[in-house]
Structures are given as structure tokens and as C-alpha cells.
Amino acid sequence: MHAELIVQGLFAAAEHPRLPALELLLARARASEAEAQSYAAWLGEAFGVEPLPAGALTAGAEGFWLRADPVHLRLVGDSMVLVPVTGLRQAEADQLVATLNRQFSERHEFRAPHPDAWAMRAEPAALETRSPQELAGVDIDPHLPGAPWTALLNEIQMALHEHPVNEGRELAVNSVWFWGAGALPANATAAWRSVSAAEPLARGLARAAGIAPRGYPRSAESWLADLPEEGRHLAVLEGAAAALEETWFAPLLAALRRGRIGMLTLHVPDAGASFETTRADLRRFWRRPRALPVHASR
User: What whole-number percentage of the chain has pLDDT above 70?
Assistant: First the structure.
């Protein structure tokens, strides 16, 4: 079995604790480098779907959709800076989306299949913008969409202003960000026998490629227990490296040592790197583990 993980932001931390299992896997791996890219761009290439209709894939529905992800817009000097909002609870996302549906029901439909990933149905119109993760921390003025999207963004910001969900939140959801417009693709392909993820974009691409997506596993052990013995299998992991060490990296290292899996590949798109490790690679004792590098996520 070839186990593959995509771990966006694996190195994105000001500093890392020592993580013995992950450090050993990286030290013994054969690394390959490419241009750093966003998670969405990596998935689009992997499934052969470009440009990526992220909205329709997220909504899992026919028609013209775009992503309308929750963001926080903050005035910094003369610039309006975008900050992606993560860590919403599903109930909070549902309340915010319900408000938008009440306000815009005659023109649009909003869905929140994941707390941090929303979609909006609209009439087809040109939209060329980048994802919030790619624009995090930058002035959005040069990246604002044209008509009719900018006017709609202003209306949405007014609808979200002083929403009860934002009370007490450090980052209020005071806007959404449009990107990934289009309809469901008809030509997605994949090299994996299974895709396990909570994130709806990966799940939507799996469906488009004829793969029934699996849910997000509690741990590597539960993931491996449910998989066939052969083939390539992808899991989209969520969380910081330290949080994944005990439940994912240590069990996968053990599985590699005992031959339960033949190869483990970690894809880190925002660092432009992949790390491939086989059981034989683990014998390269002269390659000493080191503390994780620090790399700004995108």
C-alpha cells in the first residue's frame, strides 16, 4: 500500500516542538521540490481540473457556484487586509449562512458544508480571484473582483455587521471572499483508490473522479484499518504538526517499519515539497533527524 498525506501548513509555525516520528520520516525521505502553491491549486493539478471550480465542488451541486469563504477584513494604515477565518464551529457557520440566505434568497443560495468553506450559487459571470489563503495578510484592493461582485460583497458585509456569532470572537466574520467560480467538472481523474477528508473541495474532486470520499479518520490507525491492502490512498490532514504527531506520524512510522504500508508520501504544497519514504529508507541511519523548518504558509 502507498499511503499519501497532504498536510497544508506543516511547517507554518513560529517555532516547532521536537516531533520525533515526523522528524525521522522527513530525515530518511527522498524529498522532491516544486514551486510552492496553494492547497487548492495542488488538488486541481492532482485531479487534472484546471481552472478549478471550487465553489461547485464544495457545494456538490449542479449550476454555477463560487466559493464565498468567511474572512475578516482589517484596516491597516491605508490598506484593507484580508485574514482567513478558521476554527468556526459548524453551528456558527450555519447561523451566519442562514442570515445570508434570508437576506439574499431571491438572488443567491449560500451553503456551508464545512465551517470554514462556504459556497454561493449565482448567475454565471466572469470572476478571476485567488483564494483567501493565497491573499492572507495582503492589501485586497488590487485583488477585488469587478462588477457585479464588489457591490454584492458590500451588501454581504452590511448583513454580517454586528452579527451575534461575532460577539466575543477575536476575528469577526465581517465579509466573505469570492473565488473558484464555475460548474462541476466532467473530466476529473485521480491516481488514488480512496480519498479521506473532511474538507469539501477534496471530497468534491473525489466524487468528480468517480471515487466515493471517505470521512476524516480519527487517527492513522483507524484510517489504515479501513483501507484495502493495495493501491494508493490519500488522506487530507487538518491541524498543526504537533497535533498530528501522536495520532498520525508515529502510527504511520510504525506501520512503515512493520510493512503494513510499503511507502509513505507527505505532500506539503505551501512549502513546494513532497517527502517519500519506504521501509528500506528507514535504514539510512546516517541521516539524522532535525527540528522542523519554519515556512510561511500560503
Answer: 98
Phi, psi angles (nearest 5°) of residue 285: -65, -25
Question: For all residues of the chain together, what is the average pLDDT?
Answer: 94
| Predicted confidence (pLDDT) at residue 297 exceeds the cutoff of 90 | no
Q: Amino acid identity of 269?
A: P
Q: Which helix H or strand E contains 93, and what residues bound it? A: helix 90-104
pTM of the prediction? 0.92
- Strand ranges inside 30-158, DSSP E: 30-33, 65-76, 79-84, 109-114, 117-121
Query: What DSSP letter does each residue of 225-254 carry, written as one string?
Result: HTS-SSSEEEEE--S-HHHHIIIIIHHHHH
Task: Give percent helix, percent strand, percent coil of the chain, each to the nearest 5.
Answer: 35, 25, 45
End-to-end CA distance of the chain: 30
Contact status, residue 61 vs residue 183, Cβ threshold 8 Å: no
- Per the listing, cell 457585479 goes with 148
Q: What is the pLDDT of residue 201?
A: 96
Q: Tell me which residue of 131, 44, 41 sits closest to 84, measured CA to CA.
A: 131
d(C-alpha 273, C-alpha 287), whole Å: 18
* Residue-level pLDDT at 295: 62
Q: What's the CA gap between 61 and 214, in Å, rounded?
A: 18
